[in-house]
Amino acid sequence: MRNRKKKQALFGESLDPTALRSTAKKVIPKGDVSREIIANALLSHFLFSRLPDPEIITLVDAMEKFVIKPGEVAIRQGDVGDYFYIVEEGTFDIRVNDESVGQVEDVCAAFGELALMHNSPRAATLECTSSAILWGLDRNTFRATLAATSLNAFDDIISFLRKVDILEGLDEAQMSTLAQAVDVQRFQKGDMVVRKGDVGSEMFVIKEGSVVCKVHNGDGETDHNGNIKHVDIDLGPGKFFGERALMYHELRAADVLATRELVCYTISANVFNMVLGSLKDVLETNMRVTLLKSLDIFGSLDLAMLNKVAERLIPMEFDEEDEVICKGYRADHMFIIRTGNASLECSTGEDIVLGAGECFGEEALLKNDAYGTTVMAVNDLECLALMSQTLIDLDCRLPGQNIARLRVASDSRFKNMHKARQSFGAGNLGMANMKIEEEEEEEEVLFKPINIKSIGELSCGRTLGTGSFGRVRIATHTASGQILALKALQKEAIRLTRQEKNIMSERELTASLKHPFILHLYGTYQDNDCLYMLLEIVMGGELFRLLHGDGSVENKLSSADTAFYAACVLSVYDYIHMMNIVYRDLKPENILIENTGYLKIVDWGFAKKVVDKTYTTCGTPEYLSPELVQGTGHGKGVDYWALGILIYEMLVGKTPNIMNENIDYPRGFPEDAQDLVEGLCTREVLARLGCMRGGCEDVKEHTFFENINWRELKAKKPPAPWKPPIKDNMDVSNFDDIYDDEPEDIQAYGGRQSIFKAF
User: Fold this and answer.
1) Which residue numbers belong to the known binding site?
2) Assigned superfamily of 177-277
3) 745 is catalytic
4) What is the CATH architecture assignment of 455-535?
5) Taking the model in full, what pTM does it have?
6) What is the C-alpha to C-alpha distance for residues 143 and 125, in angstroms, rounded to an integer?
7) What is the pLDDT of residues 576-626, one digit of tens each?
8) Residue positions in the annotated binding site for ATP?
9) By mean pLDDT, which of 266-275, 305-314, 716-725 is the weakest?
10) From the candidates 574, 585, 603, 639, which is the catalytic residue?
């Protein structure tokens, strides 16, 4: 059995979008034949086959020429490589451990693609056997070139979309998602772009060229040949047509012809619905979010939760003099006025009149109390109602809220009240009989704060693990005896690898995260040479150890066990993605198992807050999604891809070969798990499970997780599949042996201390 080594993470220097936008293209002259060979080779390789034409052209421009003589070595086994090569002519002998294992004889053959992902040793030697011409692309050029090209194209699309008036209501994140779904279509002069009477399925935004829209004038007037006259409308760059296809399934109202060579950005109605939903619904939800933001009561909610609340608001209509709420009845709703006016009865005898954008009933709702006043409709009134049960279902906490579960009695009039667009007369709401379960949930305190002012109060013991910048040790608080983990990071190692931003980001993000499946950060400290993070201690070892032991085994988990562990990860994703945080380094080595058998995700150095896309290549090679490898920009989708790889590894005992176009599944791989992995590991980001309009909920609702109760899981109620054997808080038997005989060599820091001031 081969020894299974732990997977090593890679990290690139952060790519600054501002700098990328001004990056000069690298253009190396080459003939048409060479360009065609390079382009064909790229398009036939899975890493590049899905790239847009402009990005393929950019890579062709950037490739360097290498002339290799017979007997010379193009790449050598064991050397760390950073070039990818395409063969224009010549042949090579492939040698592994000095034995010939094959030949490279084809024009357009390519090798060394792993060098574009990370600086791993070459797996074989390629020795030239006949005069050869190679075209090479180094990793840094590959990343910077594709990132710059992708970002500039993305900016261009965004600028054009912002000119479309019906899209004005989209927020920044929605506009970014839509920009990623845009396609490019080209037409020749005289081409019919849209034909009157056809069913509209996409809208067009003109990037280059022009069109004429031939619109019938509607009065039936004909020319001398008897043809109905029409009005010509000329449109040029920045103009758009066919936009009603996104909102209505209407027939095209006009013929549209290209009057010059035409390039259009196109948005398919089907794709729009897949990634954002119905445009009408999206704009309605955005309007509701704006309304919620204007109310102080919702001020503490992030955008993701605001959207969830907005989608669950119930439209209700009242006629003039209808009773909306009745004093003394138990509060089950609060109301936000959309149009019209409502009158609140006051003890002073003077009624208060509320208008659009104002709310009522919220105080009683939050306190789980009875309404303190009667509210009447002054005129035709349209409201958005928020149910207390919605807050419970969403686990949404508002200031001053008393969490209680409401149970509605069997009053048939009340049962029918919650239907959307329900209109009802005076008294219907007030007549509802409601009972309250006497069960109040207190806000769970996941971690009690500790008062440790300096690391001098700690006594450090055995090493639990090592990393790129230092190690993690058991630490005992001498005053209280509390056992913790102390992560020490050497500032000089951080400086030499230019990871200052990542470390500061890790500190900031980790401090903000409060979730039962995320390792808790108690505090941070520093001295001249090191940074320290005081962490919750977890003694069950890594998920890697459960799967691979000392690296010599490939344990396979059952579907049920895999679903449990994957669900823990998904619960964390649901939490962090709501805050627009992307994790970017999922792997068994970064997952610890606590004494209950539940998981803790650790090591947040690559995590980042991302609204649209980011361009730094980081993560672990076996878990990298295609967009991360290509460097064309990535977001939350990389986390769902990595989850698919993790599920595969748990079920099979090893990671799939992601260098293949398709993942190979061994015989006996569960059918529902394969469907899930294929959904999570879809190469098209916007079609990837988790990246469509339903987001994380789409993944949670997959049949693979049908036995998971998500609320109970987060509360750690179901028993875990396996509990690690732990004797006491000092038992390190679940961790690899790391010898502490020699003291750690601490390098003196040679940089500016001010960089770490906020740590």
Assistant:
1) 464-472, 487
2) Jelly Rolls (2.60.120.10)
3) no
4) 2-Layer Sandwich (3.30)
5) 0.76
6) 25
7) 998 999 999 999 999 999 999 999 999 998 899 988 888 888 888 889 998
8) 464-472, 487
9) 266-275
10) 585
